[in-house]
Amino acid sequence: MLRISNHFVSAAAVTLLLVESLVLVGSAYLGVSLRFLDLDVNEAIKRDSMLSSALAFAVVMIASMSAFGMYQIVFRESFRATFLRLMPACVLGFVLMTLVFYVLPDLYMGRGILGFMFMVAVPAILFTRVVFFKSAQTRLLESRILFLGAGALAQECTVLAQDGRLNHKYKIVGYVPTKEPDICVPASALLPSNEPVDDLVKRLNVTEIIVAVQNRRGGGLPIKDLLRCKTIGIKVTDSSAFFEREACQIRVDSLQPSWLVFGTGFDQGFLRTAGKKAFDMVVSITVLIVALPLLVVTALLIFLEDRGPIFYRQERVGKDGKHFMVLKFRSMRVDAERAGTPQWAAKSDPRTTRIGRIIRLLRIDEFPQILNVLKGEMSFVGPRPERPYFVKQLCEEIPYYNVRHSIKPGITGMAQVRYHYGASVADAVQKLQYDLYYVKNNSLFLDLLILIDTLQVVILGKGSR
After folding, report:
1. TM spans, by residue (predicted)?
2. Domain total of the chain
């Protein structure tokens, strides 16, 4: 894993993105060459504009593929699944390249040439991915990890390590039991606890140790052994850091407060604040201009369905616990909460209108919150603001819940692109773990990644209710 601006990024995904960028640039040149087999390419297209067009093609295609989640690497993904995601990405790429030609006429190459470029790029990308994923299945790209601990926390870490959706492959060599009361892992995977950990590491060729011990009091950790492992180049990783790195979560059930206090992150300096403000303004105004026709049509349809109000204002909790009124397109009946008590949204919620179901599916109901961003009450990216009624309940039941109010709430966020729509306290815990990760590691780079993932959620309709 690579760490860029405090955010963990898969080295495999970065490598694949760089390789495919080169493949796409090469496909652009080859496509032009095929189109003008009987002519000198340099006569058909100026050399400098060709390079600019090829780079634009690569950037647009990388963005389109990212929007369809093609860099959220799944090592077990089939060729068919890759093909089915690549095809709509190419359609989106073709549309975006056509727009680029109109906005930047100097890059114009003609739809015929663009067609040849895609004709070369599609098989080239598929071939690249087949080779990449076949290579990833070898043991050369596999990390051998040992768990210190064999209880419930070690079991949770095991489930995460064996998740096929991870951007890294792990081979679990075994578990060293400590003074925990319960053993929650297979007995066959237990290693002798009387053998020094550094000797086990050498004997089993371990590359990383995951410390998954819930209670560390009473001398349960072999600190001297772990220090010797650290000094010979073996990674020693706390379970909280392991979840942060692999799942982009900060687990509240196993979190040590000292880990938050003395660890890195929580950058709220002047440069970050100023950059965040500029980012919010640019993105909000751009989205508002591009989506304006859609917003007008949406408003008209909402009014025509039941002649009720177009917008819906609701009190939410923002930064530092301050209340504000969030603005949304109305997606529910006017009497949705006639009982007077706030309710969690339910799957296929009967309170939604026909138009409301559609705009919730496409997340169009959230667009008016751009005005909240322009007023400074929200950011474009951040934890979703919750209602005061639920905030009071969740702060009492979930530790660290109030930490999410240390920054401005957002229209979209890490929890929105990684988890489905929350409808219970249990869902709120899961979403909080993503929000804590964002609060701790927020950066302009992470904001851009979340925006790309948001586009994927909107296109594929994930997580709506």
Report:
1. 51-71, 83-104, 110-132, 281-304
2. 3
The encoded tokens of residue 184 equal: 């929650």
Is residue 29 domain-resident?
yes
Q: Using the Cα atoms of residue 292, residue 293, residue 296 and residue 298 in order, give the sign of their dihedral.
A: negative
The CA-based diameter of the chain, rounded to the nearest angstrom, is 80
- Compute the distance between CA of residue 295 and CA of residue 298 in angstroms, rounded to an integer: 5
Q: Are 180 and 215 in contact (CB under 8 A)?
A: yes
pLDDT digit string, tens, across residues 14-59 = 888 999 999 999 998 888 888 776 555 555 455 556 788 889 999 9
Tell which of 136, 171, 186 closes a domain.
Answer: 136
Neighbours of 447 (CB within 10 A): 24
Instruction: Answer whether residue 260 is part of any domain.
Output: no
**Tokens in use for 436?**
């804590």
User: Could you tell me which of 227, 70, 204, 203 has the C-alpha nearest to residue 143?
Assistant: 204
The rounded distance, in Å, linking the Cα atoms of 289 and 295 is 10
Residue 344 inside a domain? The answer is: yes
Q: What percent of the chain has pLDDT over 90?
A: 35
Q: Please tell me the least confidently modeled range out of 133-137, 199-203, 377-381.
A: 133-137
Q: How many CB atoms lie within 10 A of CB 395?
A: 15
Please indicate, yes or no, whether residues 418 and 311 belong to a single structural domain of this protein. Answer: yes
394 is in which domain, residue-wise? 270-460
